[in-house]
Write a structure and sequence with these properties.
With about 120 residues, this protein is mainly beta. The strands form three sheets. A five-stranded antiparallel beta sheet has the order 3-2-1-4-7. The longest helix is centred in the N-terminal third of the chain and has 5 residues.
Amino acid sequence: MTQDAQPKEEVTFDTFAQLDIRTGTIVEASPLKGARVPAYRLKVDFGPAIGIKQSSAQITDLYTPEGLIGEQVLGVVNFPPMHIAGWRSEVLVLGVYTEQGVVLIAPKQKTDNGMILG
């Protein structure tokens, strides 16, 4: 996916508003063994209302597990869980595709975990 990709179909604001996108801090990261595409197992703290959630993220090109600890990210916390290589992924950590790999989306300034994108 690149910046040249065709725009997606228009949606209403109500459709966007159904997504619960929050800030979280990565507290654990390790390789996801058995994944078809190299990925990491992440545990992300989304604050007291959501808690710590697990995610699978294909971000191995630009990040190391050690370098991810303490990084703040944005994630969709209200998607149904998926099983990826035997790992229960409970949230979608957001990133953008570049020629070098996926770049994680993060707030420009540190915020409390669980803050809602809006």
